[in-house]
Amino acid sequence: MTLRGRTAVRWTVRTLSEICLTAGALIVLFVVYLLFWTGVRADSAMDGEIGRLRQQWSTGGAAGPGGTPSPDGKRAPGRGPAQDARPRPYTSGASFAVMYIPRLGADWAKPVLEGTTTGVLQRGLGHYDRTAHLGETGNFSVAGHRRTYGDPFKDFPRLRPGDAVVLTDGATWFTYRIDNRPYTTLPGDIGVIDPVPRKSGFNGPGRYLTLTTCEPEWGHSHRLIAWAHLDSTQPVAQGRPSALTG
User: Is 229 a catalytic residue?
Assistant: First the structure.
């Protein structure tokens, strides 16, 4: 091989090596972004949403009558049928409740926002906008990321029948109880959020909760589903429910 040929080979090898190193560095940076930076930003956003809700509730802005049913499921005193025929709609993109799942950690608390767009799920859990309101007869359905953006449902597979899922809208505590181990299905299986969700084992109308997230952990080819039923309610004024204090 001539000197010119050897020089060309060395140049080619060096160039390819630099490209591989650059690509490797970019991949590492992207992974760091996914694992760390999106989590930092999402945690900050979720903390901010919860802080705003608590501030709103402390100044008398809890949902309460007209936003969600009263603890006994009846209309609030003094409100007519026309006023309470339907609860006030949730505001798209805005938070309206906080969810607690003791099984996922003593400090696990996430805001629930209206809608399931990408931007919403970067700030907390998202309520499917055509499903029931919190505590209402029907299926209150919620989605959340398994990984990235704070990993809210990272430990979703740990859920077991009997586990509590507690939510509050600032006026009422709603305690749901999980009825199944996480069920795997395809993204197009929208029957899982029907008013009486298909394959849930529920056989008639009730006050249900559906939680959904991605499967596998770092993919989105399937969905994990957990169903729950409303077990109890109590006014916030009576303190935290036993599911959060026991």
Answer: no
